[in-house]
Amino acid sequence: AGVETVKRAVQLDVASRFQESLVCYQEGIDLLLQVVKATTDEAKKHRYRQKISECTFLSDGKYHKQIKIEENATGFGYEKLFREYLTEIVSEVWVEDPYIRQVHQASRYLLYNFLRFCEMLVKGPCKVKTIHLLTSYDEGIGRSQQMTALEEIKQSLSNYGVTLNIDFSSSIHDREIRFNNGWMIKIGRGLDYFKKPQGRFSIGYCDFDLRPCHETTVDVFHTKHTKKM
């Protein structure tokens, strides 16, 4: 199955369908790694390791996609934006965003946005076990609210078998999300690209696909897939 998946990846690569080919490469690598672990034949192990190295080389650095979200555009909920990159082999996620802190800040619902992102991971086809969050401390009295909210999210995720690791940095500026299948997504506004809903009972309050967006740019990259062989 691994070899057939790799062959399909090569075909897609030749056809310049890079995003689909990368998904196939990753799935093929994962299947071949399972074979390497299961076989006791050293010659076969060596051949499969060579094939994995070739696949890793072919899949490395071939993809960059840019998505432009226009002012007031709709249809960019987290599920639609991220789901094609959340393949079944995704088990670990890194979120770096300096502003996952206040529940209310002008037009922002930052902690709620992070919660909604976590809900998407729990519902997705992937089997996420660990989420790493790197953010900055809120200032003043907001810090207590931030810590309480993050601890509640952490406890709630643990009920679904997901561990949330939280770290803080006073110098963090970049916003990016990484999955352990090699995909990296950089959003100009981080997770906070939705506009404030008109009211708690207005369309788009619950369904982010219907929520108007702020103008921003999304850059999707693929980084080298590294796994111990």
UniProtKB/TrEMBL annotation:
- Which GO terms are recorded in the biological process aspect for this UniProt protein? midbody abscission
All copies of domain MITD1 C-terminal phospholipase D-like, residue ranges? 75-222
List the Pfam families hit by this protein, alphabetically. Answer: MIT (PF04212), MIT_C (PF16565)
Q: Name one GO cellular component term.
A: midbody
Domain (MIT) spans 2-55
List the CDD domains hit by this protein, alphabetically.
MIT_C (cd02685)
What InterPro entries has UniProt attached to this entry? MIT_dom, MIT_dom_sf, MIT_domain_contain_protein1, MITD1_C, MITD1_C_sf
- Gene3D superfamilies noted in UniProt: MITD, C-terminal phospholipase D-like domain, Phosphotransferase system, lactose/cellobiose-type IIA subunit
Name listed for the protein in its UniProt record: MITD1 protein
* Origin species: Nicator chloris
